[in-house]
Amino acid sequence: KLTPVILCGGSGTRLWPLSREHYPKQFLSLQDDGQSMLQNTAVRLHGVHPSIAQTSPVLVCNADHRFLAAQQLQEQGIADAKLVLEPTGRNTAPALTLAALAAEADAVLLAMPADHVMTRPEQLHRAVEAAWPLASEGAMVTFGIVADRPETGYGYIQKGAADSHGAFAIESFAEKPSLEVAEQYLRSGQYLWNSGLFMVRADQWLKAMAALQPAMLQACEQAMAQSSRDMDFIRPHGELFGACPADSIDYAVMEKLPVRPELGVPARVVPLDAGWSDLGAWDALWDVLPRDGQGNAGTGETLAIDTRNSLLFSESRLIAAVGLDNVVVVETADAVLVADKSRTQDVKKVVAQLKAQN
Ligand code: GDD
Ligand code: MG
Predict the structure, then answer these.
(1) ipTM for the whole complex
(2) Which of the two ends of the chain, N or C, has the fewest CB atoms closer than 10 A to its terminal CB?
(3) Distance (Å, rounded) from C-alpha 4 to C-alpha 199?
(4) Gap from CA of 322 to ligand 2 centroid (Å)
(5) What is the Cα 2 distance to its own chain's centre?
């Protein structure tokens, strides 16, 4: 059976001041559709062909967000999810390992970040159907996006030989390359972006972890063996999980699998053309929101005069903009962000500085 695994532990600092420590971005509705990014993720697999049976999801998040996560799932009619609560985040490789240990051993896991947008979910359904036989047979399947700029925040997947399912072998995987290298990859035409979704049988993931990250696997196994349960919450042992090394799926496993064929977990990539976007920073939100003739996007009460290509995001008060170009303004009750749209990656520096002052 297919078990959706929702990775929901990120902090989303680049979307400050909307995204806050106690209410990070995946729990927010940024697209004006009344649904949070988590809620959109939780129903995204509705429409996968019914021959692929699905279990209720496993959600992995920070313990502080348990009620938020449970309530948002319930609002979507999902009452039987397993919620695995991390006392502190150890990045995505341990998070997926906890999920694999909480799921059935032969479940095919589909790890999904909770903070992505897909405007054409039916394309995801086709990709999942193409990946299903591969993952069922033991492969680690990634989903690749056609790259259109030398983005340095993503993983790059080098395509190898095509197979009959429309998938490709993975020649190599490079997480977050330098700009120079990313430009080279883009020019070569051989690379896809890693979408951050992964499909792998639980036992195969644990096998890969045993070979590549034995300390991480051991910490997760011990933490789960000593876990406690209340309601739908599964709490891995705090100290034992705290001792787990932190690393992402991409660095800890994906970069290594293509060069370790003897492990018996072949790496594959299925192309994905689903209007995918990682809503990492404000410029990405501007990208996916509807825009007026001047290229302005926004929500709430706004007034724009001679203003172009800007994002005006108002929560409680009117934003009036005059003569702006390529600017982001985000208004909340207690903080206002004004930033050049090309610099929105650096909003995390604001958060870091505020933290240092407190
Ligand atoms: N439960 C849990 N615990 N979830 C986590 C943790 C953690 O410690 N850390 C991150 N996550 C969640 C985030 O909320 C997000 O939904 C997802 O895992 C991915 O983490 P990011 O931190 O956003 O990763 P990234 O964007 O830098 O890189 C990944 O995604 C890119 C595409 O968006 C990589 O997989 C890249 O290769 C990929 O291109
Ligand atoms: Mg991300």
Answers:
(1) 0.99
(2) C
(3) 9
(4) 33
(5) 18
